[in-house]
Design brief:
Elements: H1 6-10, E1 16-22, E2 26-32, E3 37-45, H2 52-66, E4 79-86, E5 91-92, E6 100-101, E7 104-113
Antiparallel strand pairs: 1-2, 3-7, 4-5, 4-7, 6-7
Length: about 120
Amino acid sequence: MHTRTLEDLRLIPGYSDITMVTVSGRVPRCRPTFFPWAQTAEWLVFPSLLDLGEFRDITNMAGLIEGFNDNRINGAGRFTVEFSVWDGQRWTTDIGKALITDDLMSLTLGVKGGL
């Protein structure tokens, strides 16, 4: 992973978005923009408490309906989810092959936004 300085980021065309927002009146706000963006998270799930299919549906709905960060009311921050489960030997997108041990299941969620 490459770490960039603020000066490096300022040289990227389209890095910043200056938008008028209402706080206590209309004021310009400058925010960084990263398009497209991605994040991977590892989860341990208790399938006896939450069905894996339901968990997948909840995370997908969160990406479509809610999103991350600022300006979500206008559709910013939406994301899609790529779902992978551990089958005992490798990561797979086939949730039916998930290995469940001690009522725990390992999975990763790959989140992509700004698409």
